């Protein structure tokens, strides 16, 4: 057995081997040590290998999915090795014969299909990177085998990471030589365990056409479109990996569909992270934009919403089509609620279909198809006869195209209460299959059936004492008294029918062909009943898989309706407006709000969000957008204002209403956001270096259709260095990039640039000072801040009072003397904390006098006037009097 294990493990060195032994999957050697740590299960030992104990651990087969879920979440890959024969069959080959086993499936993060292992609202993409030797061209292909989605897109080394993160795959497979390419090493380092090297033969573009034709069962790929060599390499790599991991099964993948370059808004990796689109910087979904806008009621709808958020469109016509759907459902509130009621009960048809096609599904997956099809027909009926926007009309047509015969067949065949596993039986409805009903009757009511046959024989023969009995030797038999035996043997016909079995002293025993057949049926009824049910199951699965294209289209249509109605609910509940998205270079937001912060303020503090305008549209006489130079204090709301405008742009171009009173946005082709500070110490990059790398990427890539958001460029270095870099960056954005931009800074000297750069405007976060306190109004207004209020913010943060006072004093002297950075004079004039140190003893004596005066007071014996006079005396003491 261990020899067999070692041979199978050698063929799957990069996976943990789940080796089936009876009711357990066992792991041995290093696999056992890894799994025991990852799963928190006991590590034992079994036998010896080369004189050493063999480490072992195991998990029960019936709960294997729970353990797989943990391992996959940690990035492990698992080879599932099953017993391919009954142990009794193995014993027939000899005492030492080993049960035949082999790997039936590789479970990897990008190829899971089990319901337990998948997030209903998150796609589970496997991505392949294709590159042709000697060419710069590269391509990405990605598959979700749980739904059949298959897409491909060209990419370049410069935008590779951004394109990968746009899709956010669970697993990226790469040819081993490409994985070792030093030029691409930073990309793979960023992805970590997500990147997985594979044999180069998987990605061979020369044999790709033959591989794909064989996989899809077609003679030519012409019907799928024309693909470049790099695209064919990526597509072939993805299909080869699916074939490798699924072994003998083939998922119902849609033909690869190309994502044309330039059809989606380019968002670079740091921008995606900074804006927290689907996850916060800590990795949580709570607090992300997706969580704030998600009102979907189905898993497929949640996945589509996330996909649209990650890949906003750049075609105004396509965007308008999505917005039309949302507008229609905002206005048709009754229809919208009816739709959502139907959608709430829609199972995940695409994932159920995939499990069935891969021979991993069960009766409940067939039930999911039946429920989904019925819901689809009900939704199509709701939309019938209405004047619908194009997107909803297409969805209705896809629903109407579903095969009604399949839905009727599933409804007729499946029982109301379905078991999880097909091997449990009981999922076929009574009355569907006559033979099955008979077998169930025999299995469950054998006594009643025998009694009925006995009654029939009594009436036929006239022998009232005739009995049908059973023993372990004869099985079922007919028994009559010796005096009545002649009635069963008196004629040739009777002799032919009643076959003599045994003569007793006072009785004779017979059987008949009918009784022998009935006995056989009763003995095999349970087994036969299950066999019939499994045959029905296979027949229904075959029928469903043959309609996979129509089912996938209907599932996609239901997801579209879910997203459109969810965005309509969001727009109505949060008072969002429909944006105008066109081919201009406008960017005009009136009363814009941050969608995540607004909800958090209302939920946690019950406070309203302060809305602000933003207008980066070209000024009169200008052909390109404006740049706003934003100054103001920390805690004033600069970062929130910067991010909210980027998020409004993303929401608009994904086809959603936006949190504003009014919005007009000329299509943005690239979005860049540099907000916040971070380092990359693993690659030897300080916070300032990361800042400069990201700024360089923006300045090198932004064009006039881009939206650029920059916050505090240059703050990570010396004052004059930082000011110089920020100054030059503003000029470059204005003169070279000519893009729409928001540039926040504490370098107030930059405000003078508005006199030189006509498209640059000064705006500031308003504050109000009241009795020495600073009140942040969170309002954006025209003009420039004259200071940063940093010391006031430091006090609010809880710095020691002595530090705050010292900082105020140093700041005052710096502003008064304008030392220009020559701090040596201040060192002499203001020794560190010397003034505070000199004051400490005096303060101590003053405190002692206050304490003595307080101790001398007896409030119970004082009149109101005496108490008031005592208070004045204490106040005089506190002032140093």
TrEMBL record:
<keyword id="KW-0547">Nucleotide-binding</keyword>
<feature type="domain" description="DNA mismatch repair proteins mutS family">
    <location>
        <begin position="706"/>
        <end position="722"/>
    </location>
</feature>
<dbReference type="InterPro" id="IPR000432">
    <property type="entry name" value="DNA_mismatch_repair_MutS_C"/>
</dbReference>
<dbReference type="InterPro" id="IPR005748">
    <property type="entry name" value="DNA_mismatch_repair_MutS"/>
</dbReference>
<dbReference type="InterPro" id="IPR007861">
    <property type="entry name" value="DNA_mismatch_repair_MutS_clamp"/>
</dbReference>
<keyword id="KW-0227">DNA damage</keyword>
<dbReference type="InterPro" id="IPR017261">
    <property type="entry name" value="DNA_mismatch_repair_MutS/MSH"/>
</dbReference>
<dbReference type="Pfam" id="PF01624">
    <property type="entry name" value="MutS_I"/>
</dbReference>
<dbReference type="InterPro" id="IPR045076">
    <property type="entry name" value="MutS"/>
</dbReference>
<dbReference type="InterPro" id="IPR007860">
    <property type="entry name" value="DNA_mmatch_repair_MutS_con_dom"/>
</dbReference>
<comment type="similarity">
    <text>Belongs to the DNA mismatch repair MutS family.</text>
</comment>
<keyword id="KW-0175">Coiled coil</keyword>
<dbReference type="InterPro" id="IPR036678">
    <property type="entry name" value="MutS_con_dom_sf"/>
</dbReference>
<dbReference type="Pfam" id="PF00488">
    <property type="entry name" value="MutS_V"/>
</dbReference>
<dbReference type="InterPro" id="IPR027417">
    <property type="entry name" value="P-loop_NTPase"/>
</dbReference>
<dbReference type="InterPro" id="IPR036187">
    <property type="entry name" value="DNA_mismatch_repair_MutS_sf"/>
</dbReference>
<feature type="coiled-coil region">
    <location>
        <begin position="508"/>
        <end position="535"/>
    </location>
</feature>
<feature type="binding site">
    <location>
        <begin position="632"/>
        <end position="639"/>
    </location>
    <ligand>
        <name>ATP</name>
    </ligand>
</feature>
<comment type="function">
    <text>This protein is involved in the repair of mismatches in DNA. It is possible that it carries out the mismatch recognition step. This protein has a weak ATPase activity.</text>
</comment>
<keyword id="KW-0238">DNA-binding</keyword>
<dbReference type="Pfam" id="PF05188">
    <property type="entry name" value="MutS_II"/>
</dbReference>
<keyword id="KW-0234">DNA repair</keyword>
<keyword id="KW-0067">ATP-binding</keyword>
<dbReference type="InterPro" id="IPR007696">
    <property type="entry name" value="DNA_mismatch_repair_MutS_core"/>
</dbReference>
<dbReference type="InterPro" id="IPR016151">
    <property type="entry name" value="DNA_mismatch_repair_MutS_N"/>
</dbReference>
<dbReference type="Pfam" id="PF05190">
    <property type="entry name" value="MutS_IV"/>
</dbReference>
<protein>
    <recommendedName>
        <fullName>DNA mismatch repair protein MutS</fullName>
    </recommendedName>
</protein>
<dbReference type="Pfam" id="PF05192">
    <property type="entry name" value="MutS_III"/>
</dbReference>
<dbReference type="InterPro" id="IPR007695">
    <property type="entry name" value="DNA_mismatch_repair_MutS-lik_N"/>
</dbReference>
């Amino acid at each position: 057995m261990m020899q067999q294990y070692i041979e199978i493990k050698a063929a799957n060195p990069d996976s943990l081997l789940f080796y089936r032994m009876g009711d357990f999957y066992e792991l041995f050697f290093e696999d056992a040590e890894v799994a025991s740590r990852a799963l928190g299960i006991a590590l034992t030992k079994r036998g010896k290998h080369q004189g050493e104990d063999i480490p072992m651990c195991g998990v029960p087969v019936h709960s294997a999915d729970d353990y797989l879920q943990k391992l996959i979440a940690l990035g492990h890959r698992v080879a599932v090795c099953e017993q391919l024969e009954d142990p009794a069959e193995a014993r027939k080959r000899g005492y030492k014969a080993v049960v035949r086993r082999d790997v039936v499936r590789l479970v990897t993060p990008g190829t899971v299909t089990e319901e337990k292992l998948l997030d209903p609202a998150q796609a589970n993409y496997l991505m392949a990177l294709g590159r042709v030797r000697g060419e710069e061209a590269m391509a990405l292909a990605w598959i979700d085998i749980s739904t059949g989605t298959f897409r491909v897109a060209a990419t370049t080394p410069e935008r590779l990471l951004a394109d990968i993160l746009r899709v956010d795959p669970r697993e990226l497979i790469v040819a081993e030589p490409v994985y070792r390419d030093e030029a691409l090493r930073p990309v793979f380092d960023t992805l970590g365990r997500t990147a997985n090297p594979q044999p180069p033969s998987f990605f061979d573009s020369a044999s790709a056409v033959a591989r794909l034709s064989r996989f899809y069962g077609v003679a030519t790929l012409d019907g799928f479109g024309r693909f470049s060599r790099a695209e064919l390499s990526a597509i072939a790599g993805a299909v080869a990996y699916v074939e490798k991991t699924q072994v003998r099964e083939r998922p119902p993948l849609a033909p690869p569909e190309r994502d044309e370059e330039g059809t989606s808004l380019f968002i670079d990796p740091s921008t995606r992270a900074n804006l927290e689109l689907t996850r916060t910087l800590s990795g949580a979904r709570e607090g992300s934009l997706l969580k704030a806008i998600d009102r979907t009621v189905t898993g497929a709808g949640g996945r589509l919403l996330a996909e649209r958020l990650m890949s906003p469109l750049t075609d105004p016509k396509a965007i308008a089509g999505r917005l039309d759907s949302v507008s229609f459902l905002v206005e048709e509130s009754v229809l919208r609620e009816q739709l959502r009621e139907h959608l709430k009960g829609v199972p995940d048809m695409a994932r159920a279909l995939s499990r069935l096609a891969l021979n991993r599904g069960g009766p409940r997956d067939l039930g999911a198809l039946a429920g989904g099809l019925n819901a689809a027909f009900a939704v199509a009926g709701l939309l019938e006869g209405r004047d619908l926007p194009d997107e909803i009309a297409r969805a209705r047509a896809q629903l109407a195209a579903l095969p009604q015969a399949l839905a009727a067949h599933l409804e007729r065949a499946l029982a109301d209460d379905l078991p999880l596993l097909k091997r449990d039986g009981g999922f076929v409805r009574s009355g569907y299959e006559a033979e099955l009903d008979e077998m169930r009757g025999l299995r469950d009511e054998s006594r009643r059936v025998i009694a009925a046959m006995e009654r029939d024989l009594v009436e036929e023969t006239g022998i009232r004492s005739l009995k049908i009995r059973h023993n372990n030797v004869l099985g079922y038999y007919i028994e009559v008294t010796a005096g009545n035996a002649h009635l069963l043997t008196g004629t040739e016909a009777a002799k032919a029918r009643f076959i003599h079995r045994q003569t007793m002293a006072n009785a004779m025993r017979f059987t008949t062909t009918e009784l022998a057949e009935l006995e056989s049926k009763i003995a095999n009824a349970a087994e036969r009943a299950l066999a019939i049910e499994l045959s029905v199951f296979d027949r229904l699965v075959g029928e469903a898989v043959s309609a996979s294209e129509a089912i996938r289209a209907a599932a996609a249509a239901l997801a579209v309706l879910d997203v459109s109605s969810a965005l309509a609910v969001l727009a109505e509940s949060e008072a969002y407006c429909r944006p105008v998205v066109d081919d201009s270079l406008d960017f005009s937001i009136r009363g814009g709000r941050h969608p995540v912060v607004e909800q958090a303020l209302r939920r946690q503090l019950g406070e309203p969000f302060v809305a602000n305008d933003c207008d980066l549209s070209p000024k009169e006489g200008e052909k390109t957008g404006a740049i706003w130079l934003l100054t103001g204090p920390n805690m004033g709301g600069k970062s929130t204002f910067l991010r909210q405008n980027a998020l409004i742009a993303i929401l608009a171009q994904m086809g959603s209403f936006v949190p504003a009173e009014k919005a007009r946005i000329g299509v943005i082709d690239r979005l860049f956001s540099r907000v916040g500070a971070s380092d990359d110490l693993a690659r030897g990059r300080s916070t300032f270096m990361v800042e400069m790398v990201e700024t360089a990427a923006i300045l090198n890539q932004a064009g006039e259709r881009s939206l650029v958001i920059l916050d505090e460029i240059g703050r990570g270095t010396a004052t004059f260095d930082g000011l110089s870099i920020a100054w030059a960056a503003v000029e470059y954005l204005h003169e070279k990039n000519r893009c729409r931009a928001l540039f926040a800074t504490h370098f107030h000297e930059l405000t003078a640039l508005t006199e030189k750069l006509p498209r640059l405007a000064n705006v500031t976060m308003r504050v109000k000072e009241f009795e020495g306190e600073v009140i942040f109004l969170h309002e954006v207004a025209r003009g420039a801040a004259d200071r940063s209020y940093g010391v006031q913010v430091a006090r609010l943060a809880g710095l020691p009072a002595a530090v705050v006072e010292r900082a105020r004093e140093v700041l005052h002297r710096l502003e008064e003397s304008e030392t220009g950075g020559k701090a040596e004079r201040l060192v002499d004039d203001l020794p560190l904390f010397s003034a505070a140190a000199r004051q400490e003893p005096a303060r101590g004596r003053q405190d002692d006098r206050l304490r003595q005066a307080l101790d001398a007071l007896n409030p119970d014996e004082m009149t109101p006037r005496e108490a008031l006079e005592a208070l004045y005396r204490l106040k005089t003491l506190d002032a140093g009097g």
